[in-house]
Amino acid sequence: MSLAVMRQDGLHVEGVALAEIAAHFGTPCYVYSRAALTAAFAGYLDALQAHGLGDRALICYAVKANSNLAILKLFADLGAGFDIVSGGELARVVAAGGDANKIVFSGVGKSRA
Fold it and tell me: Is the pTM of the predicted complex or chain greater than 0.90?
């Protein structure tokens, strides 16, 4: 799947001209493709199901990679779990609609609290 497409009027992502996004929001500006993220998630899920692991495996998104609430909500809506390392990341996942029963809390230097 191609993330970006060059047209006569410039580069587009999911049919939206990046120049229009830059004019509206300014630069620098991060642009994410819902279609690309969804396709990547589906690819992992398909691979797990092809190996008979679909019912026993949970795909967890590492919040430290990108804690943008829209990204977290997309993965929550897709049924993903989340790998978090802090209370702040937990709060963001919950605010985005993530399922608290699908959270892996990992990392070093953690107290019981």
Answer: no
